[in-house]
Amino acid sequence: MRKLVIAGTILLPTAFLLMACSDEAGSSNENEDNNETTEQQEPAAAESENVDAEASMDAAEDAAEQPEREEDDALSEFSSEDIEYARVWRQLGANQEIEALYVRHISSGEPLNPDDETSAVYPEDVVQLSGARLVDGSVTYSSNGDGTINKYNVPLRWDGKNPAGREVYTEIIDNTETIRINPGEDKEIIKLIRLMQ
Asked: Where does the sequence pass through the membrane (predicted)?
C-alpha cells in the first residue's frame, strides 16, 4: 500500500504537470494562431485605413472642385467673347452701375479719331466697350487670348473742334498698357452680359 501511495504521489503530480504543459502548448498554439490572425488583420486594417484616407482625400478634392465646376457651368451658356467683354468692363469700366453695355468692334486700319484727317490708325482689331451715357466711360482694347489685353487710352468722344495732332495719336498707340483680366464673380459677369447691346 505504501508503494501505491508513493506511486500515486509521484504519478498524480506528474499527470498534473503533463496536463499543465499540454494546456500551455494548446494555449501557445492558440496565441500563435491569434498572433497570425492579428498580423494578417493589421495589414488589412492598415490597408483599409489607407483606402479610407484616400477616399476622404478624393472626396475633399471633389468638394473643392465642385464650386469650380459650378462656376464653369454658370457661364457655359455664354460665348467666350461675351464673358471677356463683361470681365474687362467689370475690372476697368469707370461706372459699374450702367443701364446697358455697348460693344463696338473696330477693325485694324480704322482711325483712332474718325473726325480728324491726321489721326493715326489702329494697328490691330480692337473692341470698344461703353455705357449708355458719356459719364459711364469707355474701354478700348485688343485681346491677347491669354487672359491679358492691350488697353488703348482712347476717349469715347474726341473734341471735334481741335485736332489732337499726330503726336497725341502716336503716343496713344505707343503707350498701350498690357493688363491681366481677373475672372471676377460669376453673378456680376452674368449681370453685365445681360446688359450687352
From this structure: none
